[in-house]
Structures are given as structure tokens and as C-alpha cells.
Amino acid sequence: MWLFLIAGSAILLGLYDVAKKHSLAQNAPLTVLLCTTALTTLFLSPWLFMEPGTLNGHLVLVLKAAIVTTSWITGMLALQLLPITLVSTMKAARPVLVLVFSIILFGERLNAWQWGGSALALAAIFLLSVTSRRDGVDFVRSRGVLYLVLSILTGAASALYDKHILQGLHLDPLFVQSWTNGYITLMLAGIILLRRALMHEAGRPFRWDWTLLLIAVLITAADALYFFALHDDGALQSVISMVRRSSVIVTFVVGAIFFKEKNLLRKSVALFVMLVAMILIFVGTL
């Protein structure tokens, strides 16, 4: 059952990435994140009162919120500076990091299939780095690539922490989702206010876009499916992370159609190699 839940989450996550890219044409990245997270918190507000939780539980979620906020902000900045096809394909490497750190932290062991998949994933990243130069992206000097790497690393850390929260501490999925989004909203609001106070400027004026509501709906549904899938004691985080990142297929196809990006044939080769890597990891994990 958890595998079907995470497959649905992957589809919604791909659509979420496309909608997020579109929204950046209207508003600044932090503004988009604050609005959509606040809307998500509003959607989940009934559970803020139904599941008050313990002090220890809230401290755990504050740390999770800090990790997620870092990943989201750097991911948004990368999405603003880089082509969506590049970002979506690079993010497909995150399951490999989750798998590697699962070995270190949770004592998991890689078999031949999983090692083969990890090697192919690294090869896909190399192919993508070569192709990206045709888009004018220098992997060594690009700020967008730096933001993207930070987003991937903190995203992997968040996924590993989720396993600890939901399977180790057995926290309720809706308690985790609702309160985490609430804390993220507060953190983003504080960051925006501090940034404006230090820079002594109002920043880009806010423009309402119905895409913001769509983003909030998509991420709320995608995260709910993810948390319920991971809450299953039989769920494997390495598999969940890999399947969820298959959202890259939706992002790549829809993004290529809407944003008319370049060098799609070469990028699709890297994407294909990445998908084969995921399949090998999936087969090796069964």
C-alpha cells in the first residue's frame, strides 16, 4: 500500500515543481515559499489543535522545520537561476545520497544492483554537468549550482530524519505535517523581515497569482501521501526517496513543453541514465 501512496506523491510533486517555477516569474522566491507554506498550514490547521503533541515532539519538529526551510530556500534560488530541466534531473540524485547515508546511519548494506545504480547515478550527473555548459551554466562557478547542491544535501538529511521521526519516534503523520509547516511559516516570515530590515528595502512587491494556491494544494497532498507511506513500519526510506524523486519525469516533460528549454535531447540522455539507476536501486532493494 505504501508504494502506491508514494507513487501518487511523486506525480503531485512533479506538478508542484512546474507550478513553482511558473510562480517565480511573479514573485520573489522567499515570498512564494512563505505564501504557499502559510496556505498549507491553513489547510492543516485543524490538526494543530487535534494533535497538540509533547514538548519533545515539538523540539524534534523545530529541527525538521529548520532543515526543510534551508532545503526549500536554496532549492527555490537554484530554480530561479537554472533551467528547470537541469534542476529536476540533478535532484534525481538525492535518493542515492539517502541510500548511502542509510548505510552509515541505519546499518543498511548495498548489494550489487544498488552499487550499479549508484554508479550510474553519478555518471548521469557527470553527463548533465557537461550538457549544462550549453545552457551557459558553469558547474564550478555558478551560484545556482551551489544552491542546488545545498538543497539536495539538506533534502537528503530531511528524508533520513523523517524515518527517525515516523518510524523511530512513531509520531503521527498529520501532527508532523501540520506543525512542521507551521514552524516553517514562522521561520520564513522571520527571515523575510530580518532581510528587509538589514537591507533597508521593501523588496519586490507582492503580486497575487492563483498558481500560489495550486502550489499549496499540490504540496499538501504530496506530503500527506509521503508521510502516511513512511509511517508504515514496512516502508523503506531508500525506496520511498527513489520513487518519490521519479517526479523528475513529470517535471522534465511538462517543464520542457511549457518553458521551451534548450538541449532537451542531451538532457534526456542523462535523465534516462538516472532513471535506469533508480530502477537498478529499486530492483536491488526488493
Description:
- By secondary structure, the chain is mainly α.
- The protein has one domain (2-285).
- It has helices spanning 2-23, 29-43, 45-50, 55-81, 84-91, 94-106, 112-132, 143-168, 173-199, 210-231, 237-244, 248-259, 264-285.
- The chain is globular and about 50 Å long.
- It starts with a helix and ends with a helix.
What is the topological layout?
Layout: H1 2-23, H2 29-43, H3 45-50, H4 55-81, H5 84-91, H6 94-106, H7 112-132, H8 143-168, H9 173-199, H10 210-231, H11 237-244, H12 248-259, H13 264-285
Structural class by SSE content: mainly alpha
> What's the shape?
globular
Q: What about the largest sheet? A: none
Residue fraction in strands: under 5%
What value does the average pLDDT take? Answer: 81
Computed over alpha carbons, the radius of gyration is 18 Å
Instruction: List how many beta strands DSSP finds.
Output: 0
Runs with pLDDT <50, length 5+?
Answer: none
Helical fraction: over 70%
**What is the terminal-to-terminal distance?**
15 Å
Q: What number of structural domains do the residues give? A: 1
> What series of H and E elements makes up the topology?
HHHHHHHHHHHHH
Q: List the total number of helices.
A: 13
Would you kindly provide a brief summary of this structure?
The chain has 13 helices and no strands. By secondary structure, the protein is mainly alpha-helical.
